[in-house]
Amino acid sequence: MPKTLQIRIYLKKKKIKFYIIFLKIFGLFMLKKNKIGIINHWPNLPNAERECASRIALTAKELGVEPILLDTFGRCLKTKKLITKDEIDFVISMHFSTPKCYDVFSYITLWNPLKFYNDWGYRVNSNNLLTYDDFLSCSSKPSEDHIKRLIHNNKTHLPPNFILNPSLSDVMYEPKIHPNSKIFYCGINWERANCKKGRFENFLKKLDEKNIIKFFGPKKLNGKKVWIGYKNYIKPIPFDGTSLIKEIADCGISLVLSSEEHIISDIASNRLYESAAAGAVIISNKNNFVKKHFKDSVLYIDTDKNTVFEQIVNHYNWIQNNPKEALKLSLQSQKIFKENFSLKTQLKNIFKNHENRKIALNKQNFNVDQSLFVNCIHIFYFPKKKSLLKLLDSFEKQTHKNFNVTIFVDINNYKKNCLSLDEPLSEKKYSFKFEIIPIEILLNKNRSKLAIGKIIRDATKKLKLSDLLHISLEEISIFSNHLEKLLTYYKDDNTVNVVVDSFLHSFFSASEGKEIIEYISLNNLSSLNKYLKYSMPCFIVKNSFFQSLPDYSIPYLDSYLLIYLLLLSKDFNKYTIKPTSIHYFNKKLPSIYDSEIQKQIIKDKVDLSFETSLDILENLHTSSLINRIYISKFILKHLPIKKFIRNLLIKIYKFFEEKRDI
User: Fold this and answer.
1) Which of 224, 255, 290, 482 could form a disulfide with 580 if both were Cys (CB 3.0 to 4.6 A apart)?
2) In 3D, which of 46, 12, 436, 428 has the Cα closest to residue 216?
3) Higher pLDDT pick, 162 / 610
């Protein structure tokens, strides 16, 4: 080959390589929207999460990223508009109390001690963590181990990779010690609001008497004056991410007290990072996290002893008598903060490596064969045009594209709530084929004349269907990865017949006057049984398996059809850990037979201790709201009391349970 030709080929290859690299970089840039969502769990309450939301927002702006404050439903607090993954890179949530219920990649911070989960309901709130896509560690081994236990047997998640502390963007004030320096202490004083004695009240009162401390925090909580009796109480501090730091800097000394729960879980108080950023000398009780990371830049006290007041006074006197030495401690703690706990550095790292993390998680989860074709069958008892269009839009956004949709609607309700049968539902063109088939499903609003099993059985006989059927019911929203998630189980195991989607339940609480959402984990038949009166989870079933089942049971089963299929297939552990659908229900489903008759129909066929497997009562404390109400109604139903008294007790219990759950 001539040398000139070799050179040309070489340069051409180099040019192609350059273009490939350019496209990769440009593509990654284009993927970023430079926007992040921040969940503000309680925007109208004074709490640490609200302050942290403000700080993350301020830090994002410094990085050139637009922050959008959201409610727990993923709606913009300003516009009330639901966010989408097309307009935002990711969301950060800071509390386990609510599950993720929006179709955008989301991180959940691991900032809470393990005991807090138990205090709020361990299983419910631990399950809430699993609805998020990834976790943000705060370098606490007990918190990380909690997650590792939860995900040890599933492919949905990976152990935490990124660190995000409840910190600040950067150092805000230079350290300074002056003769009038006072000890800064800020708190909400939750115990006082609940008519209890404060955790540290004994020595705080003594420090107040000595006039060497300033108290900050909300003046009132739940209508109670939580700082009454403290003469050095100054004022509440705005939750704006910066005002608190200025007050710490003005005082010059900061008292950082971790609760027993934080100490056991190796989690530091937010005040540690705030005090370092403010340039204050830090006085802290003994916390392994503080000792490990801040070492001897902090003055320590032992809160287990009765001499706490004396220890703090001694530290205060030493600071006043040795200002130069004290200043060295402040500079040292600031240096440690800047090198290891800058929120700007941590958030920048997450934003920079977010796409790579998503790729790693997707390798763990997906890679589903796009040739797998799915027939989606949806049944609508009470169809409305808005709900139907919302359902079709959900299917349009699916990452798995190889499917069609058949929607069976009750003909009378369709004509009443939607359109005439000759008029098209929408002028919008969808990328998939869909058909709406009006049939007579309901006898009246509470009773159906066609069971779900009968509708599906007839559909499989009349329509040309593939071997994978996706079954769904009534008003739902499905996330964009819904089909892909369910199909993952068929990728590696040809013996799987039924895969079920754990789901989110959205309902309106009359007692609270607002929406509530909860995660329904399908980890056993007992938990599934309680919801089948109200809804049926989405699931995929093999058509060949469905056709192999005899006709003398299926046509008589409504939502309990799912349990029948699971018992016969023995696919009890084939369900999504992370839910990809939201179900909106607040009343019982119309059915041809009630739940008790359906159970007995199943028991006629399945030789199993069926009732025992369905009626195991869970621990009330660890159950979800709807489970607690279900169990309590079950118990009250069997008490020898008048019916009107029973119903009254159920209403009272339901009211207070809903109130407690918020």
Assistant:
1) 482
2) 46
3) 162
Please tell me the distance from the alpha carbon of residue 168 to that of residue 52, in angstroms, as a whole number.
8
CA distance linking residue 569 with residue 546, whole number of Å: 10
DSSP notation for 449-483: SS-HHHHHHHHHHHS---SEEEEEESSEEE-TTHH
Indicate the CATH number for domain 368-616: 3.90.550.10
Residue with tokens 């009443």: 416
- DSSP E strands in 479-554: the ranges are 498-501, 503-509, 514-520, 539-542
Q: What is the mean pLDDT of the chain?
A: 86
- pLDDT tens for 280-310 read 999 999 999 999 999 999 999 998 888 999 9
Backbone angles phi, psi at 401, to 5 degrees: -100, -10
pLDDT in tens, 188-230: 765 555 555 666 888 999 999 999 999 998 887 777 788 888 9
Mean pLDDT of 551-555: 92
Q: Does domain 32-163 have CATH number 1.10.3470?
A: no
**Nearest Cα to Cα of residue 379 among 447, 452, 440, 461:** 452
Which residues belong to CATH 3.90.550.10 in the chain? 368-616
What are the tokens at 198?
Answer: 């404060």
- Superfamily holding 182-341: Glycogen Phosphorylase B; (3.40.50.2000)
* pLDDT beyond 80 at 272: yes
The amino acid that residue 184 corresponds to is F
One-letter amino acid for residue 378 of the chain: H
SS (H, E, C) 534-548: CCCCCEEEEHHHHHH
Contact 110, 145 (CB under 8 A): no
Spatial separation of the C-alpha atoms in residues 492 and 36, rounded to whole Å: 35
How far apart, in whole angstroms, are the C-alpha atoms of residue 199 and residue 187? 11
Average pLDDT score over residue span 407-434: 83
Model pLDDT for residues 327-340, shown as the tens digit of each residue: 999 999 999 999 99
Instruction: Look at residue 11 in the predicted model and tell me its pLDDT.
Output: 46
CATH 3.40.50.2000 intervals, the chain = 182-341
To the nearest 10°, the Cα dihedral for 419, 424, 429, 433? Answer: 100
How close are the terminal C-alpha atoms of the chain, in Å?
78
Q: What residues contact residue 316 under an 8 Å CB cut-off, 6+ apart? A: 183, 212, 253, 283
